[in-house]
Amino acid sequence: MPKQLFSDYPQDSQRFDEMFVSAGVPRPHYAGLYARLTRQSVTQVRDLFSEVDRQVRDNGITYNVYDEAEGGSRPWQLDPLPLIIPADEWRGIEQAVIQRATLFNRILADLYGPQTLFAEGRLPPALILGHPGFQRPAHGIVPRNGVHLNLLAVDLARAPDGRWWVINDRTQAPSGAGYALENRIITSRLHADLFRELRVQRLAPFFAALRDSIASYAPHDDGQTNTVLLTPGPYNETYFEQAYLARYLGFPLVEGQDLTVRDGCVWLKTLSGLRRVHAIVRRMDDDFCDPLELRADSALGVPGLMDVVRRGNVLLANSVGSSVLETGALTGFLPGLCEHLLGEKLAMPGAATWWCGEAPAMEDALEKADHLVFKSAMPQTHGRRFGPVFGEDLDKAGLAALSAKVRAAPREFLAQELVALSRVPVLDRQQMRHLVDRSAGMRVFAVATPEGYMVMPGGLARTSSEHDVRLLSSQRGGGSKDVWVCGEHAASPLSLLRRPVSATDLVRSGAGLSSRVVENLFWFGRYSERCDNLARYLRVALGRVTDNQETPIEWAALAAFGKQIGILPKACDERDAIRPLLRSVVDSSVAGGLASHILHLSRAGFQLRERLSTDNWRTLNALARSVEKKPHEDVGIYEAMALLDELITSFMTLAGFTLDGMTRDHGWRFLSLGRRIERLQFQTEAIETAMRMGEEGNPEWLLEISDSIVTYRSRYMARPEWLAVLDLLIADEANPRGIVFQTGGLRDYLKRLDESLGDMPDTGIEALHTRLLHLDPEKDFHPGSASLQEALATLRSASAELSNQISLHFFSHSDESVRVIA
């Protein structure tokens, strides 16, 4: 459908078109993609979007938008068409980025060392020393091998004449590499044949170099290197990417609370004690890293971290203080610095820039203000943020106001020539028969290696949300594309594997898991079991709610149990229970309801993003979507029952992943402890409530919420009777919903943990398990048994105490005597 597809694609001689030389004439490296597009039907185009959206949704790829109330759940925006760069053009980009990274590393070494650039007049001290990104505690620190800048991101834009220009530099904690990798995985599958034909260069060697170079630069004074990725937490805008990279690179994802400083080293808090950390890849801003020496109100960093860095006992990538290079005001000084420090001309200049801290530059910029864009030269200055102002948008009064603002604080402003961004074709989501043009830029990444800087062969292309957008920003709703660099030779496949593993590298234990991760696993187990329990209760209750006049005793017990577990309000009349039950299923604002707990489960899973398999995450993501924003006013019993059936199936799938897909390490044991404690508490409460019906009550509902009705019927083929029901739900060691099955599992898990970790808390589970096994069914298994009631109450109390003891014993490292492990 060539006419339809390109009918709305405009011609624009003022901007460079990445795909077309002229109307209907593609550039040589786009010829293959153009030919495929002209053969696409509307259905095939729709399928491209459907597949992209499915993978983004299933993989939970998100980007937080801080200014939106629901920005945290915003799906990542990816266009199915790649940005394609020919091999010869890429060589020039690659060389320019390598030069820039090398130059920046040399500048940082001087700024935090001898500061000869100030003494020789090559940089104005006010520009650097007055910048909030200059961290004085970092002065004098010389990192191992002299590498301050381990990872660099450079934002490029193409001018109308086809040349690439640098728009921004990201030197502090560059983001986007993980999104580039995820884009590649999705897009290469959409166009697999074209991907092979163009010999697109692969990204895996870049990430292998990142992982191995960090290890090579880290201290090696006590054996194998332990590298972690430090995140500000799950509410950071790029948390998905951080978790994704941590899993891909094999680095533990840690928060500041997971690390501690002792004896001049950084340690990771694990189940077994403290494990030495040799390298930290940080995604945290400079001033948040250490509240002792940097920003005192930071709750995200690691107290004492700067002292360890100063001692050379940990590698911090990138070095604290590197954000000072992110100011655009440095642009005008880079050509001279490049010739002075490297002895060569700057290969790729930035857009013409005027730093208003120099009086002549300020006057020149204000004279031509109507052709420039004014930005903050100190973007980190708290409380004085200054968004981009386009002079061409201002009238005389606006220009005068701008001039007054700049003159009042000239050092805080810079002016920059506005580059007309190149345009790329984007498939229109609203009208899938058309291509539209959008402004585009490209973020390119470089990593320091012992052989010099290496550039990712590709990157992250960013596109504007509208046709006439002049600046690109993901925070403003922009999209993305994969970047394909054509290869001159077929790309060799590479997996992210290191050198061959030796016997000393073998790992068979989960004792190195951080305490926070294990705590989240424990609560993930509890929430997953709690959701399953609540869903089964709701399904039974809604199935019986219309029969409450025929079985008043049973319904009264069901309603009482619903109040006890928080599904029904305490003051709820049993005859008016339908609406609270329905709301519990679908309304996440109901505290204690199923929908609310599903979101708790989802949040716990989000904290474990790097630990969950893709299949596991897809199921969890689908669960959260099933209750988010679900309208509840008009939901009927039939619809709610259908949803409960789906949810229970998903909960069983999650349980299956736990049973069949997780390694039986300590993480799995703590998750299983959480599940069994939760099931034990639910089952004991349910049995106690049912027993209050007395002999005349029918315990069939108890069997149903315990998922044991099929087993009972296959064994007895008769109406449920108390003796058999209580035997099945309490004393049958083969019933996974039975009480002794839970206590036996808890006993075994605690024993295994005690053998490897030692000093396990004693909450009497072993004795209670034995006591249950010695109950006399003939004497004790009936509703009026005082000994059974007392045993169940004691067990419920003991399980709650066990949960508390586990939290105190394993999830807190306040005890200074905690042992250190190698």
UniProtKB/TrEMBL annotation:
Transmembrane segments: none
Domain DUF403: 513-811
Circularly permuted ATP-grasp type domain ranges (all copies): 82-463
Domain of life: Bacteria
The name this protein goes by in its record: Circularly permuted type 2 ATP-grasp protein
InterPro entries reported in the protein's UniProt record: ATP-dep_Glu-Cys_Ligase-2, CP_ATPgrasp_2, DUF403
